[in-house]
Amino acid sequence: MVPAREPQEEEYDDGALDSYSETVMRVAEAVTRHVAAIEMTSNRRNGRFRVGAGSAVLFTEDGYLLTNSHVVAGTHKGHAAFADGSRTDLELVGVDPLSDLAVVRGRAPKVAPAQFGDAETLRVGQLVIAVGNPLGLAGSVTAGVVSGLGRAIPVWSGGNRRVIEDVIQTDAALNPGSSGGALADSRGRIVGINTAVAGAGLGLAVPINSTTRRIISALLKDGRVRRAYLGVVSTPIRLSASAVIRTGQRDGLRVVEVLAGSPAGRAGLLAGDIILTAGSRPVSNAESLQKLLFAEAIGQPLRVRVLRDGQELDLVAVPEEMPANGNG
Asked: What CATH number did the domain enclosing 144 receive?
């Protein structure tokens, strides 16, 4: 019997790796030109000081860029530098701390704006590429996969606690300077705005979908988004077979935490509850709940049906207006 010959290193098929590399390189080349390194400043007695720095994505031909609200917090002006070496002064247009999105504007750039995709088409395991300005290294690129969808994360802002809802989780490495950068799919479409607010190494992004498009439109028009505030930290969950039979739904939102003193807390929601419906509409992810919490919901009773210990309960919450600074 002739022993099997060990394959030589050059005989291994590295076509899959080449294909992966080619995709990442192609997307990086296409997206990097749309992502600027930004530095936001504030006037003080001794002159102008840097307050925040990160990345931003050009999304209109007349110089509007999308970034994170925590990057521009407490500022009104700054400047941006693109990969081609061009620079522009920036003015703050509007912020929405609840979604961690902000819009700034500079001069009309030489490059075309980025193309937005739809994060609703993403699937866990899908390839995504993050482009940003981590730690001042312009045009840095990392790649990974979508690790989770529909996440809600609690963060601290100005000494107060709030929740960023419906975020994308990815294993693409993100550092603080990546905040405001682009998360792109394999076709180079922007499906999220990276946010490193939760800490280095945890890849999170605010999705580009119908809700965030509505937020962006409000920021462009009014400089802010009037939002109703409920105060729950949640995560999507697939219901058990018995719960599906009982409720007629396959999915819900599991309440991870109810923020102290929030409308949800006063309504009686508890950690461990599974939200089935809100306003008589099925709730299966954070966005489906977010859609119900714009200006028209402020002060209006919202009927919330939850599954608790195998029993369905109807609760009534009265959402409050999120303060303009995002606290509360």
From this structure: 2.40.10.10
